[in-house]
Fold this protein.
Amino acid sequence: MIEKILKILAKNEDYISGEEIGKILNISRASVWKYMKKLKEIGYEIESISNRGYKLKNNIDFIDKESLKIENLFFEEEMASTNDYAKKIALENCPNWSVVLCNNQTNGRGRLGRSWEAEKNSGIYISFVLRPEILPQYVYQITLVVGVAIRRVLESLTGLEPLIKWPNDILINGKKVAGILTEMNSEMEKINFVIVGVGINVNNSKFSEDIAQKATSIMLETNKIYSRNEIIRKLVIELEKCYNQFCLYGFKPFKEEYNKYCANVGKNVTTQNGSEKTTGISKGVNEKGELIIESENGQVNVLAGEVSIRLSDGRYI
Ligand code: ATP
């Protein structure tokens, strides 16, 4: 119902009365009032004048699920975490390649339980439920393939050259613009499902002090406002293309492109996997998508999984 009310408000440049909205949707004026209250809580700025009705203050870029025309789409105005929602529907046996999307995410997560910041009505929060027929040990490759797809979409939209910070972040001008969180439910040799969550900073205008130095949005980098609908459409198409290619041929066809745009290649980096630290020059990924690090004494380390990476002088990238 909330989405229907939003659509009516967005279509009307002038005020529209609660009575009129109620008539269109066959609900009482009191219900309209309650939904308006909820919309304001979510973050929409709605002007209300007695005798005239309601009007959306800013022409916000709201997500219109019908125009997206995505099959098996689970959309809600607000979700705590699209990955958690996706996990729930996966356990209830939703189809392969179900897409979970929300306008606002209130409790988004990154890897290792870190939180993902979300300015109201500004970012993209989307998760995919996949059931790939691969061994669980190769699931991390999906993160890399999704990174390639996001990078391509952001490049075509902005004309800039986004880079990938192995394994799961996309950067523009050295700052994180998108992140990927891949989670799986599996048995020894069999994957039940994989959830790939993507967060993209689109029209975000600011970040908290903690991450202001390392986070950015495509709006901040280009001074343009973007339609999240358009990006979502492009992203879903590109992701499906890449994922299908991955299912047929594995990571191999993506290796060259990944390394071309991998931000850490040739740099002195330190990686951390739990308490284990590795320092050396990043040589990019091999055909399995593992990061190769060559240390000064010639030792070669091959890394995959929940690894954090920084430049050896401590800088983000
Ligand atoms: P790092 O980016 O620190 O190397 P990581 O790739 O493991 O680590 P994730 O777990 O994927 O990071 O993402 C969570 C981290 O991203 C948070 O700890 C925070 O530093 C940063 N972050 C949180 N929200 C945003 C956002 N909207 N945009 C960019 N970065 C964010």
User: Anything to note?
Assistant: The domain at 65-259 is CATH 3.30.930.10 (BirA Bifunctional Protein; domain 2).
